[in-house]
Amino acid sequence: MTVSEMRPWKVPPATVVFVGGGPRTVGLLERFAAGAEELLEGRDVHIHVVDPYPVGGGRIWRREQSRLLWMNSMTSDITIFTDESVECEGPIVPGPDLASWVAGEGAVILEKAGLEPPGPMDFPPRLVQAEYLAWVWERVVRDLPATVSTHRERAVELTADQRVILESGTEIAADAVVLALGYLDRLPTASESAWAAQAADAGLTYIPPGYTADVDLDGLWPQAPVIVRGFGQAFVDLMVLLTEGRGGWYDECDGLLTYRPSGDEPILYVGSRRGVPYHAKLGYTVAGTKPVPTHYLTKEALGDGPLDFDRDVLPLIEKELAYAHYKQLFGAHSERVRMPWEEFAKALDSWTPVTAQDWGHSGFDVEPVAAPSAAPPPARGTTAAPPSAWGQLTDAAFAAVVAGAVPDPVDRFVRREVDRPLDGLRCADRERFEQFMVELIEDDLLRRADPSCSADLAVFNALLSVYSVLSRAITDGQLSDEDRVRKVEREWHGFFSFVASGPPPRRLEELLALHRAGIVRFAGPDLDVAIDNDEFVARSPGVAGEIRARAFVEARLPSPDVLAASDPLLRGLLGSGALAADELFASDGTSLGGGQLKADSRSRAVRADGSVHPALFLLGPSVSGSAGSSGFSRPHFNGPGFRQNDAVARDLLKLLAPTVRKEERHAS
């Protein structure tokens, strides 16, 4: 007897509401379509997607933004489709990555949009990604065994009986709801509110942290000084919008850019904690160099119990990055080393990094040492390998080994020095400091374009692998809230972004051109800003003097804090206890802000009472355990976001199917 013969009545259509229509929803619905034939049992489904921005790109990747803004990834490094590398239960349904799409079906679409098709190694305008995502959305809708409705407005409430209420008053009764809200706006912090009040009283322009593409920059006057704190992606976007965005342009002669001002640009004095821009993206590839499983920072090394980040995790990260750097250096550039890799690897194994809370300069000088003589053979009758001839190596001792094995300091890797290149700098002459900064940025551009420095690429790939291990440790609850927020989300993620998520090289070339034109000045590290005599005053301990201006921009994204989110839907669900997010405190009682929304291992919402909602799913950067939220997956990389999307899509399909499987009933 078939399922339909056992069921004399017609099963009514199922309704699913997706709140948020960005890339996460698109990717999840692609997986939903892939698994529907196997799991949905032919049931009719109506899908509603609610987002005030166009579905596909959502807010961040919408078409309505400046064509001057670029992505931080190369065209060949972006896909939204599964491929043979993805390890998931559902069927693989290949589709074009961005580079293949640009060279094929996307070429006509981009031409109609007035966009130049980027090459595989180019960093495309965000509008190119907007067109790609819009095309992917249309393909996904075509493949879905469901009717699809989109609602260009906000969802403001989700009732206990699963009715989604929109701003317009429309109500949608849902069998399942997926919240894929992306990056959330948040209420101002107490400090930001105080800054805004003081600036308003003094008649000053203060721009708090925010998404640069959405910020009103009209208060930044032409040719007037502006203090900018932040040297990452938000600053690069600000720089572009206040220069080319105000009518300036670049000339290029013999490889040197010259900026031609329009006269409407302000003068940007930029500094930050490090005082330097993020490293440029690597401008080369090396065959066979790709992310590999970690060597020291492994699940086995971390174990299953609670971890202290400084004591248990940071030393393994230090060794992991050093291992990646030196293994590539010794293997690909053996003419630049003075020791066999096998012997150096023993020294690396014997190194016990100091668990330092300071991510700054290492603080020691070393004399090079040679490799020890070979260890004696084991005694007759023993089977255990002899201990390393190096013994236990301290930081200073290992640095001495490195100095002997790697003669040129530019070939050495010290994570603290990479992280804080200006640490300890004291400069009494601002012009000399600015010249030093120019040379530092020029050196970075040369190095990041040079395949002979391929150890940098190995470190980049190791960073990706380290991130994967850290994400698992966080998901498994091995790190305290304080370590997760302060050590991982702030310090470690800051280092990762500085090294691996910097701008395209062209942007740093433009930065130097703007400096030569007098539009950008360098303010120094550890930049402190205050209000004095109705002016903003910026000072750096690394550079003598002060900078005064009537405008101050915090060029960074808002600190994530779910409990401070301004979204009315989330605030209502948190207030009613339908969603849970802890307010986090450090061991000394200091507030760390609101944590992420709680979800179980299957991405189902956890309520304030600890129970799990079987038909409310949470995905995105504000959700605990949400994979792939930091960016788009690379082709042939087995992206964790794909794996999670597939698992959630299959859970949704099983939930909506007419027959409820025994195992699903028990699981819910």
Automatic annotation (TrEMBL):
Span of domain FAD-dependent urate hydroxylase HpyO/Asp monooxygenase CreE-like FAD/NAD(P)-binding: 17-183
Pfam family name, one: NAD_binding_9
Name of the protein in its database record: NAD(P)/FAD-binding protein YdhS
Record organism: Kribbella aluminosa
SUPFAM superfamilies attached to this UniProt entry: FAD/NAD(P)-binding domain
Positions of region (Disordered): 366-387
Stored InterPro entries: FAD/NAD-bd_sf, HpyO/CreE_NAD-binding, L-asp_N-monooxygenase_NS-form
Domain of life: Bacteria
